[in-house]
Amino acid sequence: MKYEFSARAHTLLSSPLLSIRTQMRRGSLISLAEELPAEELFPLSLLAEAASTVISADAGALQYGDPEGYAPLRDWLTGDWLTAKGVKVTEGGVLLTTGSQQAVDLLSRVYIDPGDRVLVENPTSPGFLQALRMQGAVIIPVQGDREGLLPDHLRRQIQQHRPKMLFATPSFTNPSGILWSLQRRKEVLELCTSYNVLIVEDDSYGDLHFQRHGEQPGKRYPSLYALENVSSGGHVLYIGSFSKTVAPALRTGWAAGSQELIGMMTAAKQMADWQSSSLNQRLLHHLLDVSAFDLREHIALLNREYNTRLKLMAELLKRPAWKNSSYDMPDGGMFLWVSLPEGLDALALLKCALGKGVAFLPGPLCSVDGGANYIRLNFSHPGRDELLLGMNLMSEAVTEFTARS
To answer: What is the number of H-type helices and E-type strands within the chain?
Structure first.
């Protein structure tokens, strides 16, 4: 039969990432395109021990659980991890989700009607854009610089479009890697509060923090959620994930915010999947709270290695093929956002690169409009040898594409 999908459903099939992931599964591609951590740094032995202990200790680990998530893990999250970040969450103010992407999807379902205006950083996360488009939102870009969103432009966009929501990643924006300054965080929060705009703050990359120039290691800026410091009726929904710091397959993220907002998202979650995996959540709780695993030490290890890989990628971008390209070195995160030399189109270059066995994310997938001469390169997933090979193949693709042009 002829299937008549919704108009918005076709956005799901238009992404080059589908082709990239298919080729990766076949083992025929070096991918610099995806949001993947380093597999060789996963705490495998401790995860294996946690899985064995959790399953053998209680058959309830394999039973249905609470839609809000495994209570001891929620207690650990709000009592230890988030408190250390200055984030205070009241009872009923946190929901465990299947990664941070589900938090975005659930909120979009309960908060966005077709035609609603939503502000985003430009460029921004492809996942944000896809979730908003599926709900029929009108997406409005906000300009920024190396300090974060520009307050004057944000104010004009709010006054002109009267948006319901702002999606933002103040700590290492995907894909640009920008770390908002403290002053810019305060200005954006003040504007959104005064105009009653909900801020969705994604902090999935915030712990992947390298040493910022001129600062001591470990320097942090408070989240927008912590700056507002309002647990009931606040203007910030704070979301994050263990996918980038522990292991993606555990599929455990969270949303923290007003009890009213979390309650509505929990109701939507019961319609979507009832609950995220209680087994995974129990396993993660055992790893974090019972085993010898130290999450902070593990993150420090990730940051040292990722910083090394970032510097290696930056050195390889000094080769002649990349002449006239440009980028700003991020202070954390997982990506390098590269402006291509004039005349290079990201989507056309991707076809050439795929033919050589390497992939990247083209800029238009991260942009509300434009981005044709930008690419996003992931430096966290490929090991150093694979990173070297992948960048060599990228250089070949750029040189070949330039010669054709």
So the answer is: 14, 14
